[in-house]
Design a protein that fits this description.
The complex is a heterodimer.
Chain A: E1 3-12, E2 15-25, E3 30-34, H1 41-49, E4 56-60, E5 66-69, H2 81-91, H3 98-103, H4 119-131, E6 137-141, H5 149-164, E7 168-172, E8 183-186, H6 198-201
Parallel strand pairs in A: 3-7, 3-8, 5-6, 6-7
Antiparallel strand pairs in A: 1-2, 1-4
Chain B: H1 2-13, H2 21-37, H3 41-62, H4 66-73, H5 76-81, H6 87-114, H7 123-149, H8 156-182, H9 188-217
Helix pairs in contact in B: 1-6, 2-3, 2-6, 3-6, 3-7, 3-8, 6-7, 6-9, 7-8, 7-9, 8-9
Classes of the chains: A alpha/beta, B mainly alpha.
Protein backbone atom coordinates (compact mmCIF):
# COMPACT_ATOMS: atom_id res chain seq x y z
CA UNK A 1 0.00 0.00 0.00
CA UNK A 2 1.54 3.27 -1.11
CA UNK A 3 1.08 6.17 1.28
CA UNK A 4 0.48 9.23 -0.86
CA UNK A 5 0.48 12.77 0.50
CA UNK A 6 -0.59 15.49 -1.95
CA UNK A 7 -0.23 19.22 -1.45
CA UNK A 8 -0.82 19.02 2.30
CA UNK A 9 -1.22 22.15 4.39
CA UNK A 10 -1.45 21.91 8.17
CA UNK A 11 -2.22 24.35 10.95
CA UNK A 12 -1.26 24.39 14.60
CA UNK A 13 -3.26 26.50 17.04
CA UNK A 14 -5.08 28.11 14.09
CA UNK A 15 -1.87 29.25 12.38
CA UNK A 16 -0.81 27.77 9.05
CA UNK A 17 2.66 26.29 9.49
CA UNK A 18 3.28 24.04 6.49
CA UNK A 19 1.87 24.09 2.98
CA UNK A 20 2.38 22.28 -0.29
CA UNK A 21 3.94 19.17 1.24
CA UNK A 22 3.82 16.20 -1.16
CA UNK A 23 5.54 12.84 -0.95
CA UNK A 24 4.97 9.18 -1.59
CA UNK A 25 6.03 6.27 0.54
CA UNK A 26 6.07 2.85 -1.11
CA UNK A 27 6.40 -0.48 0.73
CA UNK A 28 10.00 -1.09 1.79
CA UNK A 29 10.81 2.61 1.95
CA UNK A 30 11.68 4.87 4.85
CA UNK A 31 11.31 8.63 4.84
CA UNK A 32 12.93 10.84 7.45
CA UNK A 33 11.45 14.29 8.08
CA UNK A 34 13.93 16.96 9.09
CA UNK A 35 13.56 20.55 10.08
CA UNK A 36 14.07 22.91 13.03
CA UNK A 37 11.87 22.81 16.14
CA UNK A 38 8.41 24.15 15.52
CA UNK A 39 8.48 23.68 11.76
CA UNK A 40 5.53 21.30 12.00
CA UNK A 41 6.92 17.76 11.97
CA UNK A 42 4.61 16.51 14.71
CA UNK A 43 1.59 18.29 13.24
CA UNK A 44 2.32 16.80 9.82
CA UNK A 45 2.65 13.31 11.30
CA UNK A 46 -0.62 13.72 13.24
CA UNK A 47 -2.36 14.78 10.03
CA UNK A 48 -1.02 11.76 8.17
CA UNK A 49 -2.09 9.54 11.08
CA UNK A 50 -5.60 10.97 10.76
CA UNK A 51 -5.71 12.54 14.21
CA UNK A 52 -6.02 16.01 12.80
CA UNK A 53 -7.77 16.95 9.55
CA UNK A 54 -5.45 18.72 7.09
CA UNK A 55 -6.25 22.28 6.08
CA UNK A 56 -5.97 21.44 2.39
CA UNK A 57 -4.55 18.52 0.46
CA UNK A 58 -5.11 14.81 0.72
CA UNK A 59 -3.59 11.80 2.45
CA UNK A 60 -4.40 8.50 0.77
CA UNK A 61 -3.47 4.96 1.69
CA UNK A 62 -3.22 5.66 5.42
CA UNK A 63 -6.66 4.44 6.50
CA UNK A 64 -6.28 1.38 8.77
CA UNK A 65 -2.69 0.93 7.59
CA UNK A 66 -0.73 3.04 10.04
CA UNK A 67 0.72 2.49 13.49
CA UNK A 68 1.44 5.78 15.21
CA UNK A 69 4.07 6.33 17.90
CA UNK A 70 3.89 9.75 19.51
CA UNK A 71 6.14 11.57 21.98
CA UNK A 72 4.36 9.79 24.83
CA UNK A 73 4.34 6.03 24.85
CA UNK A 74 0.78 5.34 25.99
CA UNK A 75 1.91 2.97 28.72
CA UNK A 76 -0.01 2.24 31.88
CA UNK A 77 2.21 2.49 34.93
CA UNK A 78 0.22 -0.08 36.89
CA UNK A 79 0.33 -2.75 34.19
CA UNK A 80 3.35 -4.98 33.63
CA UNK A 81 5.42 -4.92 30.44
CA UNK A 82 3.66 -8.05 29.16
CA UNK A 83 0.19 -6.75 30.04
CA UNK A 84 0.83 -3.45 28.25
CA UNK A 85 1.95 -5.21 25.09
CA UNK A 86 -0.77 -7.86 25.28
CA UNK A 87 -3.39 -5.13 25.50
CA UNK A 88 -2.20 -3.35 22.36
CA UNK A 89 -1.77 -6.65 20.53
CA UNK A 90 -5.36 -7.65 21.22
CA UNK A 91 -6.65 -4.18 20.28
CA UNK A 92 -5.05 -4.76 16.88
CA UNK A 93 -6.30 -8.35 16.73
CA UNK A 94 -2.95 -10.11 17.27
CA UNK A 95 -1.69 -12.18 20.17
CA UNK A 96 2.00 -12.99 19.75
CA UNK A 97 4.15 -10.52 21.65
CA UNK A 98 7.33 -12.61 21.97
CA UNK A 99 9.13 -11.28 18.85
CA UNK A 100 8.57 -7.71 20.04
CA UNK A 101 9.92 -8.48 23.51
CA UNK A 102 13.00 -10.15 22.04
CA UNK A 103 13.65 -7.45 19.43
CA UNK A 104 13.71 -4.68 22.02
CA UNK A 105 15.55 -6.71 24.67
CA UNK A 106 12.64 -6.60 27.10
CA UNK A 107 12.41 -10.30 27.98
CA UNK A 108 14.07 -9.82 31.37
CA UNK A 109 11.74 -6.95 32.22
CA UNK A 110 8.51 -8.68 31.22
CA UNK A 111 7.08 -8.98 34.72
CA UNK A 112 8.00 -5.47 35.84
CA UNK A 113 5.38 -2.74 36.21
CA UNK A 114 5.76 -0.20 33.42
CA UNK A 115 5.80 2.56 36.03
CA UNK A 116 9.06 1.24 37.48
CA UNK A 117 10.95 1.24 34.17
CA UNK A 118 13.56 3.84 33.28
CA UNK A 119 12.82 6.42 30.59
CA UNK A 120 14.80 4.50 27.99
CA UNK A 121 13.16 1.20 28.90
CA UNK A 122 9.72 2.81 28.65
CA UNK A 123 10.62 4.14 25.23
CA UNK A 124 11.71 0.67 24.12
CA UNK A 125 8.41 -0.75 25.34
CA UNK A 126 6.57 2.04 23.52
CA UNK A 127 8.39 1.17 20.29
CA UNK A 128 7.84 -2.56 20.82
CA UNK A 129 4.13 -1.73 20.64
CA UNK A 130 4.60 -0.99 16.92
CA UNK A 131 5.60 -4.60 16.30
CA UNK A 132 2.39 -6.00 17.82
CA UNK A 133 0.10 -3.83 15.68
CA UNK A 134 0.76 -5.71 12.46
CA UNK A 135 0.30 -2.44 10.56
CA UNK A 136 2.52 -1.86 7.49
CA UNK A 137 3.11 1.90 7.77
CA UNK A 138 4.87 3.09 10.91
CA UNK A 139 4.60 6.77 11.77
CA UNK A 140 7.27 7.66 14.29
CA UNK A 141 7.60 10.97 16.08
CA UNK A 142 11.09 11.37 17.55
CA UNK A 143 11.40 7.62 18.21
CA UNK A 144 14.93 7.77 19.60
CA UNK A 145 14.32 10.22 22.45
CA UNK A 146 15.95 8.93 25.67
CA UNK A 147 17.43 5.85 23.95
CA UNK A 148 21.13 5.07 24.38
CA UNK A 149 23.40 4.14 21.48
CA UNK A 150 22.82 0.39 21.85
CA UNK A 151 19.04 0.82 21.94
CA UNK A 152 19.12 3.09 18.89
CA UNK A 153 20.98 0.30 17.07
CA UNK A 154 18.32 -2.20 18.23
CA UNK A 155 15.62 0.12 16.98
CA UNK A 156 17.35 0.69 13.62
CA UNK A 157 17.60 -3.09 13.23
CA UNK A 158 13.86 -3.47 13.89
CA UNK A 159 13.01 -0.74 11.37
CA UNK A 160 15.27 -2.39 8.80
CA UNK A 161 13.56 -5.73 9.39
CA UNK A 162 10.18 -4.02 9.03
CA UNK A 163 11.23 -2.48 5.69
CA UNK A 164 12.51 -5.84 4.43
CA UNK A 165 9.15 -7.48 5.10
CA UNK A 166 7.39 -4.90 2.92
CA UNK A 167 6.61 -2.33 5.59
CA UNK A 168 7.40 1.36 5.44
CA UNK A 169 8.30 4.02 7.97
CA UNK A 170 7.73 7.75 8.12
CA UNK A 171 9.68 9.36 10.93
CA UNK A 172 10.71 12.68 12.36
CA UNK A 173 14.14 12.42 13.90
CA UNK A 174 17.30 14.46 14.33
CA UNK A 175 19.84 11.72 14.74
CA UNK A 176 21.24 9.43 12.11
CA UNK A 177 19.79 5.94 12.47
CA UNK A 178 22.32 4.42 10.10
CA UNK A 179 19.54 3.53 7.67
CA UNK A 180 21.32 4.02 4.36
CA UNK A 181 18.14 3.39 2.38
CA UNK A 182 16.14 6.11 4.11
CA UNK A 183 15.27 9.21 2.10
CA UNK A 184 15.38 12.57 3.82
CA UNK A 185 12.76 15.30 3.39
CA UNK A 186 13.64 18.72 4.77
CA UNK A 187 10.46 20.56 5.71
CA UNK A 188 11.99 24.03 5.92
CA UNK A 189 11.13 25.01 2.30
CA UNK A 190 7.47 24.15 2.91
CA UNK A 191 7.05 26.67 5.70
CA UNK A 192 3.76 28.50 5.19
CA UNK A 193 3.94 32.15 4.23
CA UNK A 194 2.52 34.44 6.92
CA UNK A 195 -1.09 35.20 6.06
CA UNK A 196 -2.98 38.42 6.47
CA UNK A 197 -5.22 38.20 9.49
CA UNK A 198 -8.53 38.35 7.65
CA UNK A 199 -9.92 35.47 9.70
CA UNK A 200 -9.48 37.21 13.03
CA UNK A 201 -11.01 40.48 11.96
CA UNK A 202 -14.38 38.80 11.68
CA UNK A 203 -14.30 38.24 15.41
CA UNK A 204 -12.95 41.63 16.43
CA UNK B 1 -13.18 -3.96 22.76
CA UNK B 2 -13.07 -6.69 25.37
CA UNK B 3 -9.35 -6.04 25.82
CA UNK B 4 -10.08 -2.38 26.53
CA UNK B 5 -12.75 -3.28 29.09
CA UNK B 6 -10.46 -5.79 30.83
CA UNK B 7 -7.63 -3.26 30.89
CA UNK B 8 -9.81 -0.50 32.35
CA UNK B 9 -11.20 -2.80 35.03
CA UNK B 10 -7.72 -4.07 35.87
CA UNK B 11 -6.40 -0.52 36.14
CA UNK B 12 -9.34 0.47 38.34
CA UNK B 13 -8.70 -2.36 40.78
CA UNK B 14 -4.92 -1.88 41.02
CA UNK B 15 -3.36 0.66 43.34
CA UNK B 16 -4.31 4.25 42.54
CA UNK B 17 -7.05 3.14 40.20
CA UNK B 18 -9.88 4.88 41.96
CA UNK B 19 -12.09 1.84 42.44
CA UNK B 20 -13.94 2.35 45.68
CA UNK B 21 -13.59 6.13 45.57
CA UNK B 22 -17.27 6.56 44.72
CA UNK B 23 -18.26 3.82 47.12
CA UNK B 24 -16.33 5.42 49.99
CA UNK B 25 -17.93 8.79 49.25
CA UNK B 26 -21.40 7.18 49.21
CA UNK B 27 -20.63 5.57 52.55
CA UNK B 28 -19.48 8.86 54.06
CA UNK B 29 -22.60 10.73 52.91
CA UNK B 30 -25.03 8.14 54.22
CA UNK B 31 -23.19 7.81 57.52
CA UNK B 32 -23.04 11.57 58.09
CA UNK B 33 -26.62 12.48 57.16
CA UNK B 34 -28.20 10.83 60.25
CA UNK B 35 -25.77 12.81 62.45
CA UNK B 36 -26.71 16.03 60.68
CA UNK B 37 -30.46 15.45 60.76
CA UNK B 38 -30.52 14.30 64.37
CA UNK B 39 -32.43 11.51 66.09
CA UNK B 40 -35.71 11.88 64.22
CA UNK B 41 -36.32 8.48 62.72
CA UNK B 42 -39.53 9.51 61.00
CA UNK B 43 -37.99 12.48 59.20
CA UNK B 44 -34.94 10.42 58.29
CA UNK B 45 -36.94 7.60 56.78
CA UNK B 46 -38.95 10.12 54.76
CA UNK B 47 -35.84 11.67 53.17
CA UNK B 48 -33.87 8.41 52.94
CA UNK B 49 -34.70 7.56 49.29
CA UNK B 50 -33.72 11.05 48.16
CA UNK B 51 -30.49 11.03 50.19
CA UNK B 52 -29.50 7.66 48.74
CA UNK B 53 -30.07 8.93 45.22
CA UNK B 54 -28.21 12.20 45.75
CA UNK B 55 -25.34 10.29 47.36
CA UNK B 56 -25.17 7.91 44.40
CA UNK B 57 -25.24 10.78 41.92
CA UNK B 58 -22.44 12.71 43.61
CA UNK B 59 -20.39 9.53 44.00
CA UNK B 60 -20.68 8.99 40.24
CA UNK B 61 -19.75 12.59 39.52
CA UNK B 62 -16.64 12.32 41.67
CA UNK B 63 -14.91 9.76 39.47
CA UNK B 64 -15.97 11.08 36.05
CA UNK B 65 -12.89 13.11 35.16
CA UNK B 66 -10.75 9.99 35.39
CA UNK B 67 -12.56 8.35 32.47
CA UNK B 68 -10.47 10.01 29.76
CA UNK B 69 -7.98 12.20 31.65
CA UNK B 70 -5.49 9.43 32.42
CA UNK B 71 -5.55 8.04 28.88
CA UNK B 72 -5.15 11.57 27.55
CA UNK B 73 -2.13 12.32 29.74
CA UNK B 74 -0.13 9.23 28.83
CA UNK B 75 -0.98 9.41 25.14
CA UNK B 76 -3.04 6.20 25.00
CA UNK B 77 -6.05 8.13 23.73
CA UNK B 78 -4.17 9.19 20.57
CA UNK B 79 -3.05 5.62 20.05
CA UNK B 80 -6.55 4.25 20.63
CA UNK B 81 -7.88 6.74 18.08
CA UNK B 82 -5.54 5.30 15.44
CA UNK B 83 -6.41 1.71 16.46
CA UNK B 84 -9.00 -0.30 14.54
CA UNK B 85 -11.64 0.29 17.25
CA UNK B 86 -14.46 2.68 16.35
CA UNK B 87 -14.47 5.77 18.57
CA UNK B 88 -18.12 5.13 19.47
CA UNK B 89 -17.09 1.69 20.72
CA UNK B 90 -14.25 3.16 22.78
CA UNK B 91 -16.52 5.65 24.56
CA UNK B 92 -19.19 2.98 25.16
CA UNK B 93 -16.62 0.62 26.69
CA UNK B 94 -15.28 3.46 28.83
CA UNK B 95 -18.81 4.21 30.07
CA UNK B 96 -19.42 0.52 30.78
CA UNK B 97 -16.15 0.25 32.72
CA UNK B 98 -17.10 3.33 34.73
CA UNK B 99 -20.51 1.85 35.51
CA UNK B 100 -19.04 -1.48 36.61
CA UNK B 101 -16.51 0.18 38.90
CA UNK B 102 -18.79 2.93 40.25
CA UNK B 103 -22.49 2.45 39.54
CA UNK B 104 -22.78 -1.27 40.16
CA UNK B 105 -21.12 -1.21 43.63
CA UNK B 106 -23.53 1.59 44.59
CA UNK B 107 -26.51 -0.58 43.64
CA UNK B 108 -25.29 -3.29 45.99
CA UNK B 109 -24.27 -0.90 48.77
CA UNK B 110 -27.54 1.07 48.80
CA UNK B 111 -29.71 -1.48 50.68
CA UNK B 112 -26.99 -1.99 53.29
CA UNK B 113 -26.59 1.73 53.87
CA UNK B 114 -30.35 2.19 53.76
CA UNK B 115 -30.43 0.70 57.28
CA UNK B 116 -28.45 3.70 58.56
CA UNK B 117 -31.11 6.03 57.17
CA UNK B 118 -33.97 3.86 58.50
CA UNK B 119 -35.26 3.39 55.00
CA UNK B 120 -38.85 2.05 55.09
CA UNK B 121 -38.97 -1.69 54.39
CA UNK B 122 -41.05 -1.58 51.17
CA UNK B 123 -38.59 0.94 49.70
CA UNK B 124 -35.56 -1.38 49.67
CA UNK B 125 -36.40 -3.19 46.47
CA UNK B 126 -37.34 0.03 44.67
CA UNK B 127 -34.15 1.82 45.70
CA UNK B 128 -32.13 -1.07 44.30
CA UNK B 129 -34.21 -1.32 41.13
CA UNK B 130 -34.19 2.43 40.48
CA UNK B 131 -30.42 2.64 41.03
CA UNK B 132 -29.83 -0.38 38.78
CA UNK B 133 -31.91 1.23 36.02
CA UNK B 134 -30.69 4.79 36.54
CA UNK B 135 -26.94 4.57 37.22
CA UNK B 136 -26.06 3.45 33.65
CA UNK B 137 -27.50 6.77 32.47
CA UNK B 138 -25.27 8.60 34.98
CA UNK B 139 -22.18 6.84 33.60
CA UNK B 140 -23.05 7.45 29.94
CA UNK B 141 -23.94 11.12 30.46
CA UNK B 142 -20.79 11.51 32.55
CA UNK B 143 -18.67 10.00 29.79
CA UNK B 144 -20.05 12.65 27.47
CA UNK B 145 -19.07 15.35 29.95
CA UNK B 146 -15.61 13.84 30.36
CA UNK B 147 -15.17 13.73 26.57
CA UNK B 148 -16.16 17.40 26.32
CA UNK B 149 -13.59 18.51 28.88
CA UNK B 150 -10.71 16.15 28.07
CA UNK B 151 -7.44 18.00 27.72
CA UNK B 152 -8.55 20.95 29.85
CA UNK B 153 -6.37 21.29 32.91
CA UNK B 154 -8.51 21.08 36.05
CA UNK B 155 -11.55 20.55 33.87
CA UNK B 156 -13.45 18.96 36.75
CA UNK B 157 -15.37 22.09 37.69
CA UNK B 158 -16.44 22.80 34.12
CA UNK B 159 -17.45 19.19 33.70
CA UNK B 160 -19.57 19.23 36.87
CA UNK B 161 -21.37 22.35 35.63
CA UNK B 162 -22.02 20.72 32.26
CA UNK B 163 -23.07 17.35 33.59
CA UNK B 164 -25.20 18.24 36.63
CA UNK B 165 -28.13 19.72 34.65
CA UNK B 166 -28.13 16.60 32.48
CA UNK B 167 -28.29 14.47 35.62
CA UNK B 168 -31.41 16.20 36.95
CA UNK B 169 -34.07 14.17 35.05
CA UNK B 170 -32.44 10.91 36.12
CA UNK B 171 -32.35 12.12 39.73
CA UNK B 172 -35.98 13.29 39.70
CA UNK B 173 -37.40 10.06 38.31
CA UNK B 174 -35.00 7.79 40.21
CA UNK B 175 -35.77 9.38 43.56
CA UNK B 176 -39.48 9.42 42.65
CA UNK B 177 -39.45 5.65 42.08
CA UNK B 178 -37.82 5.12 45.47
CA UNK B 179 -40.16 7.59 47.23
CA UNK B 180 -43.36 6.16 45.77
CA UNK B 181 -42.08 2.69 46.52
CA UNK B 182 -41.51 3.70 50.14
CA UNK B 183 -45.09 4.96 50.43
CA UNK B 184 -46.52 1.91 48.72
CA UNK B 185 -47.79 3.82 45.67
CA UNK B 186 -47.55 2.69 42.05
CA UNK B 187 -44.09 3.22 40.59
CA UNK B 188 -44.77 2.33 36.99
CA UNK B 189 -44.72 5.81 35.46
CA UNK B 190 -41.48 7.16 36.97
CA UNK B 191 -39.78 3.79 36.49
CA UNK B 192 -40.67 3.72 32.80
CA UNK B 193 -39.49 7.30 32.36
CA UNK B 194 -36.24 6.49 34.18
CA UNK B 195 -35.68 3.44 31.95
CA UNK B 196 -36.53 5.58 28.92
CA UNK B 197 -33.84 8.12 29.83
CA UNK B 198 -31.28 5.36 30.39
CA UNK B 199 -31.97 3.56 27.12
CA UNK B 200 -32.15 6.85 25.24
CA UNK B 201 -28.76 8.10 26.40
CA UNK B 202 -27.14 4.68 25.97
CA UNK B 203 -28.35 4.62 22.37
CA UNK B 204 -27.56 8.21 21.40
CA UNK B 205 -24.88 9.81 23.56
CA UNK B 206 -21.91 7.59 22.51
CA UNK B 207 -22.13 9.17 19.06
CA UNK B 208 -21.98 12.65 20.58
CA UNK B 209 -19.13 11.65 22.92
CA UNK B 210 -17.14 10.17 20.03
CA UNK B 211 -17.66 13.31 17.95
CA UNK B 212 -16.45 15.70 20.66
CA UNK B 213 -13.54 13.40 21.48
CA UNK B 214 -12.39 13.49 17.85
CA UNK B 215 -12.52 17.29 17.94
CA UNK B 216 -10.66 17.43 21.25
CA UNK B 217 -7.87 15.20 19.94
CA UNK B 218 -6.94 17.61 17.16
Amino acid sequence: MVLCVRDLAVTRGGLAILEGVSFELAPGEALVLRGPNGVGKTTLLRSVAGLQPPETGTVTGAEDQIAYAAHSDGLKAMLSVTENLKFWASVFGLSDIEPALVAFDLTELRGRMAGTLSAGQKRRLGLARLMVTGRPIWILDEPTVSLDVASVALFAEVVRGHLHTGGSALMATHIDLGLAEARVLDLTPFKAAPRTRQMDEAFL
Amino acid sequence: MRALLTRDLMLAIRAGGGFGLGLAFFLIVTVLVPFGVGPQTELLSRIAPGILWIGALLACLLSLDRIFALDWEDGSLDLLATAPLPMEGIVSVKALAHWITTGLPLVFAAPVLGVLLSLPVPAYQWVVISLAVGTPALSVIGTFGAALTVGIKRGGLLMSLLVLPLYVPTLIFGAEVARRGAEGLGVQTPLLLLAGISFGVIALLPFASAAVLRINLR
